[in-house]
Amino acid sequence: MTKLLNDATVYEPTLAKFNPLCIRVTEFYFESRYPLFPISVAVEKEVRQMLTEAEELIAKSLAIT
Length: 65
Prior knowledge:
Elements (H helix, E strand, L loop, with lengths): L1 H8 L9 H15 L10 H21 L1
């Protein structure tokens, strides 16, 4: 996910602010896909914040196209 965002920031530099979100979400993917990775715990507040940021990223992405 971070690779895709990095590619997109070449065309839309304002997307760079979503890099921390993409890193965190990618961690969750690897943890679910590869069980030997250490499991991180996200509290509800963190999950809600990530969801809000993801919705903002999606809205911004749709507005660009």
